[in-house]
DNA sequence: TGATATATGTCATAGTATAACATATCAAGA
DNA sequence: TCTTGATATGTTATACTATGACATATATCA
């Protein structure tokens, strides 16, 4: 239940590792990790921020891929349908998955100051929503858990000011 | 922790009651529940569905209020800032608050079939997000909890098909 | 009543997302 | 290997969501 994302780490390494892992998972599942899709994943991994579809599109387009919105949306759809990228509804934006090893139900902490997004894995069966759903006989298929606030770094800086 | 919204109830009554309650709360807090704002609230209360800002705008405009997007967005902003309406991030839409008696941290169950939205009150300190935030030293200011799935009615209908 | 803040309305534009269709590429069986 | 059906890419066009900026009107209160 730890929420990585607010500490530094070996970034290049984590990108390469994740891409390799995703490649393997696609191969195993018969998914086509095509050039645009792979490049999109890399672009997402280069940030721990949420990127808008149009930010991604700008970079893809610069690099010789198509220049129209569906190019980015389709790559992002593929990646998020397969859990390699998540959509942050609060921001209408996307973030690379921090735990690409398996399917999971993510929760996010979004810093309103520096816009960093930290991801944590949750147990979907244990949360508030599960309890509410059970009491209403509602079947949850997807859950959005997003908290907005101040990350430790920004909070300290704010206090210092 | 019960999630009302999937049962029938005396609707006209609930609208009138809620409007009266909101009027009182505004008076007490020195908030101006102006004509557009009140009408917007009523429009929202007539549905247990999420309405887009442009749906609301269309109705307001029909009824002689302004016809431009800010008219609807400003009324919805006022209502949601004060907790009388909530934004459903997943849908980029708004829903009338089902518990307008006090400030609270809402969670939503959204039926993907009939688009009904049920609201439940939660204890923000008890959920997943609170635990994650505590372990990361993150300060939550606002939480988005939205589950998408099938409501009891639609599930039964689906099974019958 | 006059001064200040708040609210409404408009025009203009920015940002997010998808439908529809042509072309290209891939995967698998004949 | 060739064909065929499915998948993926790229385009144009358009729809949906949201806000900035500014003028006018209304409310609040000294």
Automatic annotation (TrEMBL), chains A, B:
SUPFAM superfamilies: Winged helix' DNA-binding domain. InterPro entries: FUR (IPR002481), Fur_C (IPR043135), WH-like_DNA-bd_sf (IPR036388), WH_DNA-bd_sf (IPR036390). Coiled coil: none annotated. The keyword Transcription regulation applies. Keywords: DNA-binding, Repressor, Transcription, Transcription regulation, Zinc. Belongs to the Fur family. This is Transcriptional repressor. It comes from Celeribacter arenosi.
């Amino acid at each position: 239940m730890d929420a990585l994302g607010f500490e530094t780490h070996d970034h290049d390494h984590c990108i390469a590792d994740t891409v390799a892992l995703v490649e393997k998972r696609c191969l195993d599942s018969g998914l086509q990790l095509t050039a645009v899709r792979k490049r999109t994943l890399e672009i997402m991994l280069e940030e721990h921020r949420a990127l808008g579809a149009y930010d991604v599109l700008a970079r893809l387009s610069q690099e010789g891929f198509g220049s129209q919105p569906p190019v980015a949306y389709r790559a992002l759809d593929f990646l998020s349908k397969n859990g390699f990228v998540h959509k942050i509804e609060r921001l209408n934006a996307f973030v690379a998955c921090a735990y690409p090893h398996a399917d999971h139900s993510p929760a996010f902490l979004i810093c309103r100051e520096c816009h960093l997004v930290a991801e944590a894995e949750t147990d979907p069966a244990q949360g508030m929503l599960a309890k509410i759903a059970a009491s209403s006989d509602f079947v949850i298929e997807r859950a959005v858990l997003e908290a907005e606030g101040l990350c430790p770094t920004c909070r300290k800086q704010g206090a210092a000011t």
